[in-house]
Amino acid sequence: MATAAAQRTAGTEADGTPDTAGTTAHQRAFDAAVAAEERIEPRDWMPDAYRATLVRQIAQHAHSEIIGMQPEANWITRAPSLRRKAILMAKVQDEAGHGLYLYSAAETLGTSRDELLDKLHSGRQKYSSIFNYPTLTWADVGAIGWLVDGAAITNQVPLCRCSYGPYARAMVRICKEESFHQRQGYELLLALGKGTPEQHAMAQDAVNRWWWPSLMMFGPPDDESQHSAQSMEWKIKRHSNDELRQRFVDICVPQAESLGLTLPDPELRWNEERGHYDFGPIDWTEFWEVLKGNGPCNEQRITQRRRAHDEGAWVREAAAAHAAKHTGGAGGTGATRA
Ligand code: FAQ
C-alpha cells in the first residue's frame, strides 16, 4: 500500500486543484502524512504557512546557538584550570556546530544562510531571550550548563519527533551534545557547591540570577503563545510551553537539593494533587522587554555578532574561492584538483 509520503511526492498537476470542500490532494496527502507520524521531507509538498513557521523557528534556534556562544566564551580565557578551559572550549565549539546543522536544516526549506544572518543582524529575526543576560562570575558557566542547557534539552528532546525530517534529525545529535553540556554544568556547580563558603555563595548567586530567565526560555504562557496551537497541530511542537516549563521545574528541584543549592522561589512546593511542583509567578514584563531589545546585553550581543560576521568575511571569500577552484566554477579552472 502506498504510504502518505509516496502519495504526496508522486503528485500530478491535478493535485493542486481544490475539491468541493476547497482542499487539494496535496493538502490531503500532507495532512495524512502528519497524522500517520510520517516525516515531511524537503521535496514534499507542504503548506506555505508550515514552511514559514519552520523557517521562523529553525532560524531562531540557529541564531540562539551562535549568539549563545558569547556569554560562555567570555570565560574561556579566565577558566580556573586547563581541564575546565578545554571542556568549555569544546562546549562553545559544539554550539557553533549546532548553529551549522540548524542553518543547513533551514536551507532545505529554500532559504539561504546569508538571508537568515542578514535578518538576525538587522533585528528581523529573534534569538533566545536567555542570551541577553551577562555572565558575571565563573559560576555562571555552571549555571548556564545546568539550567540553560537543561531547559534546552527539555524543550528539544520532543523536537527529535518533529514532523519535518531535517529538523528532527538535526535535533537528535544536538540533544546528545546538550546532555554532555548539562552534565558539565552540573558537575561544575557541584564542585563549587561543595567548595569553600565563598565558592558556594558564588554558585548560589549564579543560580539566583539564571533561574527565572531559564523558565522564560520556554516562551510565553500558553494563553499568550500565538504559534503553539498550529505548531502542535502540525506536530512541529509536541508539547505546550507551559507543559515543558513544568517538566523542567519538576526535574530541577531534586537536582538543586543534591547540589546543596536553593532555587530562588519561596512559592516552590510539591503539590500532591497535581503531582507537580507549584512555582511562583514569572515576570513576563521582563521577558517582553528583553524580546523588544531592552535586556541587559541585547546591544552588546548583536554588536559583537555583526563584528564577528564582518571580520569573518575574508574566511567566507577564501572558502568560496577554494571551492570554485576545486569544482572548476567561477574564478577557477579545476586544474588543481588532486
Ligand atoms: N526568546 O507563540 P510562541 C539553547 C517568541 S537553544 C525569544 O510561544 P513558538 C542551546 C516567539 O518566537 C535555545 N523569543 O512561539 C544553548 C514568538 O515570536 P515571533 C533556543 C521567544 O515558536 C545552550 C513569540 O515569542 N531554543 O539554549 C522566546 O511557538 C547554552 C510568541 O511565542 C530554541 O529555539 C524566547 N525564549 O514557541 C546554546 C528551541 N519564546 O517568532 C548556547 C526551538 C518565545 O512570532 C549555550 N524553538 N519567543 O516573532 C521552540 O521550541 C519555540 O520556538 C519556542 C517558542 C518554545 C522557543
From TrEMBL:
It comes from the Bacteria. The keyword Oxidoreductase applies. Residues 1-24 are annotated as: Disordered. GO terms for biological process: phenylacetate catabolic process. It is an enzyme of class 1 (oxidoreductase). Its EC number is 1.14.13.149. GO terms for molecular function: phenylacetyl-CoA 1,2-epoxidase activity. Residues 9-24 have a biased composition (Low complexity). Coiled coil: none annotated. InterPro entries: Aromatic_CoA_ox/epox, Ferritin-like, Ferritin-like_SF, PaaA, PaaA_PaaC. The keyword 4Fe-4S does not apply. It holds the Pfam family PaaA_PaaC. Keywords: Oxidoreductase. GO terms for cellular component: cytosol. This is 1,2-phenylacetyl-CoA epoxidase subunit A.
